[in-house]
Give the backbone structure.
Amino acid sequence: MLPWYETVATRYPPFVVWMLIAACVGAFLYQVSLPPSVLELFLRQYALVPARFFAQWAQPRPGDWLAFLTNMFLHGGWLHLIMNMWTLWIFGPAVEDRLGARRFLFFYIACGLAAGIAHGLANPESVVPALGASGAIAGVIGCYARLFPAARLVVMIPVLFLPLFFEVRALAFATIWLLLQIIPGLLTLGQDVGGGGIAWWAHIGGFAAGWLLAPAARRARIAHRPYFRDEGLYGFMPDGRRSGGRGPWR
């Protein structure tokens, strides 16, 4: 279920979203420029290796803790990068618009840190480097669903080679998405993660952080300028609801 379009009106350019995408793309281009042996050492240092911090024998050095930050800017391949950046591009601008640029940046990093901690606690003995922005982006999804639960999303579901498009509420999308993380996450608890795979608990931890931090991170409505007449989509309220809905604008 791939998010394709969202309906929340924004008033400010998403400079932080652009900056984060540029940083992730730049870091990935640097990764692919490294020889395999150098890349392996690079990922051991700057991706997140849970056993280095959470195993019983762990004795992390002060510089090792930087991996909780740097891992969220690294990716394991082009598809990994494109999917994460696409999702950030869909949900990030509306959240940045409501939080403000500075708050959104700190919020994004906080969600990424929470995702790394959740992954480490769920896989304390893993020596596989974990990397990717998906934990932090999961926090953005959680915040979006908390701030705009009735907003409409267009999602694409591929059936064989035929893409099908559906309209769903943001809260319904987030609920389905979260269940698709929790179920395999529970199934993988206690299993050997030596072969790598998807960091389900990073997604769950990031989403939970985004959902919980959303009310505190959001700026007061008085801090926003009014909407101009040409902002938003015809037939939708500024918070993404259809114009026939009820409730205050956000």
User: Anything to note?
Assistant: DSSP finds nine helices and three strands in the chain.
